[in-house]
């Protein structure tokens, strides 16, 4: 366990340094600040009562940027090591493939979470400076988003072992952004009967649900705190489903020829 | 008593191909390397050297046969605790410095902080890269990256060094320094197994050579046995590979 922790910490440190030096994060940060400032520019022209609009733009921007960054960071973890052949000196160390997979997931999770927290802090600071209030549910939003990022990283890292990087990024972005419309299946199931309804319910359950981890609209419309058991249940879903994704990835990776 | 550093028995490495029979890169290859030996692994391009080295390092599970490192299965991660490896093309993260690169591999190797720091500095000094310790890898030349590779292979004082095309990308000064470095590794009792096309270098360092062709071992000699019998290692290598090609072609036709 200590050894796995040491491996994970080493990979995380290197991964974080890479992300900082790639400068992707700064571009996203600047873009988010510009979006929020753009949205708040209405105030200059004397349009009042736009707090909800500004918050909506801000949290949508955070959501979109975080999802894109998370997918891009997680998708490159193992394929890039293979592509630039740095996987050889890495796997020449006394580490198992399971430890590498776990370490790469943790690297992606840590880096993407840090990006999200930076984006959120910058946006929160800006909202406060603009006099737009944010309710305590904001803390639950942050917590749930952090859980969701870990789950998304597990899915992307696992799929990166089966798909080409381009196919992986495309598919996971579609699944992440498209998951908001999966609940239409439940509506359809409501109007169906028998086998059709069962099939639609099963399909809904089998599809990955990144939408479960998004409370942004509740923050925008100043909802009260959600019951904590809901967050606990969602954490359980993320843990089980994320572990399943990592297991799927490991099943492929454990016998894979490195560098083929 | 000395033990076997490398033991390869009836190794087969096959690659699956779509709508074609599998390609057999290594065909029932058997050899041993004793602890403390320096062995050159020679062969023309596509002979199966890199495939063999990949199975030695556990990067590729063998399609058949047995590969052991100090008595442990090569796919066992613990075997790599005793091994330092230099890949054919040394590429390292462009966004890390040589110091950070070595720190990453050292930590993965299980080395502790203070000992690791001292070892990184000593190794970068030994490969003449101390002055570029904090320069990003993307700003280093190919030869400098090869030196980073050599330094990472020596981290943790490995008992066995496996080097694939070790001198590729090095200038003549670098090659001389590498020879000295390998001599110092030999002096501390390390076993060295390396592939190279630089036959003069092989002749100056090795105790023994193995020559493979089309995945089959066609010759193995102690260099001391060849001395006086052949004009140069290069001539001997070319003649052996040519003879091996003829024999293998005859076998294929007979089959």
Q: What do these coordinates show?
A:
The complex is a heterodimer of chains A (260) and B (255). Chain A is an all-alpha fold and 260 residues long. Chain A has helices at 2-22, 24-40, 51-83, 87-91, 97-129, 137-159, 165-178, 184-191, 194-206, 216-220, 228-253. Chain A is built from eleven helices and no strands. The longest helix of chain A has 33 residues, at 51-83. Chain A is globular. The model of chain A has no long low-confidence stretch (mean pLDDT 90). Chain B is an alpha/beta fold and 255 residues long. A six-stranded mixed beta sheet of chain B has the order 6-7-8-3-9-10, sandwiched between helices. A four-stranded antiparallel beta sheet of chain B has the order 2-1-4-5, covered by helices on one side. In chain B, helix 2 (98-109) packs across helix 3. Chain B starts with a strand and ends with a helix. The model of chain B has no long low-confidence stretch (mean pLDDT 88). The interface between A and B is medium-sized, with 30 and 36 residues.
List keywords for this structure.
heterodimer, A: 260 residues, mainly alpha, 11 helices, B: 255 residues, alpha/beta, Rossmann fold, four-stranded antiparallel beta sheet, globular
Low-confidence stretches of chain B: none
Pair with the biggest interface: A-B, 30 and 36 residues
Written as H for each helix and E for each strand, in order along the chain, the element string of chain B is: EEEHEEEHHHEHEHEEHH
Order of helices and strands of chain A: HHHHHHHHHHH
- The quaternary state of the protein chains shown equals heterodimer
The tally of domains of chain A stands at 1
Tally the helices of chain B.
Answer: 8
Shape verdict of chain A: globular
Query: Spans of chain A of 5+ residues with little confidence (pLDDT < 50)?
Result: none
CATH topology title of chain B: Rossmann fold
Got a strand count of chain A? 0
Q: Which whole number gives the mean pLDDT of chain A?
A: 90
Query: What CATH architecture label of chain B applies?
Result: 3-Layer(aba) Sandwich
- CATH secondary-structure class of chain B: Alpha Beta
In angstroms, what separates the terminal alpha carbons of chain A? 30 Å
């Amino acid at each position: 366990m200590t050894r796995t922790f040491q491996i994970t910490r080493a990979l995380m440190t290197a991964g974080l340094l890479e992300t900082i030096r790639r400068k992707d994060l700064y571009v996203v940060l600047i873009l988010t600040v510009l979006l929020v400032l753009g949205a708040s520019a209405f105030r200059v022209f004397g349009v009042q009562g736009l707090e909800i609009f500004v918050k909506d733009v801000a949290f949508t921007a955070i959501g979109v940027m975080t999802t894109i960054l998370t997918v891009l960071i997680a998708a490159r973890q193992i394929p890039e090591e293979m592509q630039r052949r740095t996987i050889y000196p890495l796997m020449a160390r006394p580490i198992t493939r399971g430890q590498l997979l776990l370490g790469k997931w943790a690297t992606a999770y840590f880096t993407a979470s840090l990006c999200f927290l930076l984006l959120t802090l910058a946006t929160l600071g800006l909202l406060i400076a603009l006099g737009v209030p944010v309710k305590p549910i904001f803390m639950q939003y942050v917590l749930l988003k952090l859980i969701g990022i870990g789950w998304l990283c597990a899915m992307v890292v696992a799929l990166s072992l089966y798909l080409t990087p381009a196919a992986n990024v495309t598919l996971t972005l579609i699944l992440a952004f498209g998951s908001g419309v999966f609940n239409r299946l439940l509506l359809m199931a409501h109007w169906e009967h028998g086998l059709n309804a069962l099939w639609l319910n099963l399909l809904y359950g089998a599809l990955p649900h990144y939408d479960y981890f998004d409370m942004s609209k509740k923050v925008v419309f100043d909802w009260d705190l959600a019951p904590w058991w809901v967050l606990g249940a969602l954490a359980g879903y993320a843990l089980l489903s994320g572990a399943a994704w990592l297991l799927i990835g490991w099943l492929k990776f454990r016998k894979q020829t490195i560098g083929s | 008593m000395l033990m076997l550093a490398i033991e390869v028995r009836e190794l087969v490495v096959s690659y699956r191909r779509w709508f074609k029979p599998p390609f057999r890169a290594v065909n029932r290859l058997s050899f041993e390397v004793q602890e403390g030996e320096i062995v050159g692994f020679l062969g023309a391009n596509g002979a199966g050297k890199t495939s063999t080295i990949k199975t030695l390092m556990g990067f590729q599970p063998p399609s058949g046969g047995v590969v052991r490192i100090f008595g442990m299965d090569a796919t066992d991660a613990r075997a790599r605790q005793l091994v330092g490896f230099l890949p054919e093309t040394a590429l390292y993260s462009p966004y890390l410095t040589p110091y950070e690169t070595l720190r990453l591999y050292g930590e993965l190797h299980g080395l502790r902080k203070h000992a690791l720091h001292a070892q990184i500095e000593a190794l970068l000094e030994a490969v003449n890269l101390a002055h570029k310790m904090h320069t990003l890898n993307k700003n280093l030349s190919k030869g400098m990256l090869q030196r980073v590779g050599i330094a990472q292979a020596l981290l943790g004082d490995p008992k066995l060094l496996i080097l694939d095309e070790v001198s590729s990308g090095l200038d003549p000064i670098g090659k001389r320094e590498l020879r000295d470095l390998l001599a110092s590794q030999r002096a501390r009792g390390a076993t060295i197994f390396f592939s190279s096309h630089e036959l003069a270098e092989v002749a100056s360092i090795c105790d023994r050579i193995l020559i493979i062709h089309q995945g089959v071992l066609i010759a193995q000699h102690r260099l001391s046995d060849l001395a006086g019998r052949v004009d140069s290692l290069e001539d001997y290598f070319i003649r052996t590979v040519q003879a091996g090609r003829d024999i293998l072609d005859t076998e294929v036709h007979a089959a």
